[in-house]
Design a protein that fits this description.
The structure is a single chain. This protein is mainly beta. The protein has a single domain, classed as Beta Barrel (Porin). Helices cover about 10% and strands about 60% of the residues. Strands 1-2-3-5-6-7-8-9 form an 8-stranded antiparallel barrel. A hairpin with a 2-residue loop joins strand 5 and strand 6. The longest helix has 17 residues. The N and C termini lie far apart (about 40 Å).
Length: about 170
């Protein structure tokens, strides 16, 4: 993805948020949440639904990146996959997430047949106000499919989140 495309998508997301203030989080933990996460060469979309009237939501989403920061010895190019999570809202400004992550990736940037799997757990902590929040995300797990065999390590990054919520 070209760097200008990534910034342009963030500008469009911010413009959409400004154009739809009724969907913006106003400090109340609402029933339904749709989020757009944008990081350095990474992005994701997710939906979550609050459980009862408490502080927890359950959700899932898709995530993808281009060569994210990692502790793996081999390259992890273009990971793309699905994630489930439990989101806790200890306050109106803080969101904590934890759940399984399953990604397919390429281990060589010039080989379309060089694919592998990442299976692990994802954690994120977001702090912000209104619809905008910012925070780190970490995926700890095992990759398979690399010529050296399986390896345990981490993928990490910083992401900005636009969280749209509606309902009770």
């Amino acid at each position: 993805m070209h760097p200008s495309t990534r910034y342009l998508s963030l500008v469009f997301a911010l413009a959409a948020a400004n154009a739809a203030p009724g969907l913006a989080q106003d400090g109340v933990i609402r029933k339904n949440h749709f989020s757009v996460d944008v990081g350095l060469l990474q992005g994701g979309l997710s939906y979550a639904r609050r459980v009862g009237h408490g502080q927890f939501s359950i959700g899932g989403g898709v995530w993808g990146a281009w060569e994210p920061w990692s502790s793996f010895e081999g390259g992890v190019f273009e990971p793309l996959g699905a994630e489930l999570f439990v989101r806790a809202h200890p306050s109106r400004a803080v969101q904590l997430e934890l759940g399984p992550s399953l990604l397919r990736y390429r281990w060589a940037d010039d080989c379309s047949e060089c694919t592998g799997t990442f299976a692990g757990v994802r954690a994120a902590a977001m702090v912000g106000h209104g619809i905008f929040s910012l925070g780190p995300t970490v995926r700890l797990g095992r990759i398979t499919g690399h010529p050296a065999g399986g390896e345990t390590g981490m993928l990490w990054g910083i992401q900005a989140r636009l969280l749209f919520s509606w309902g009770e």
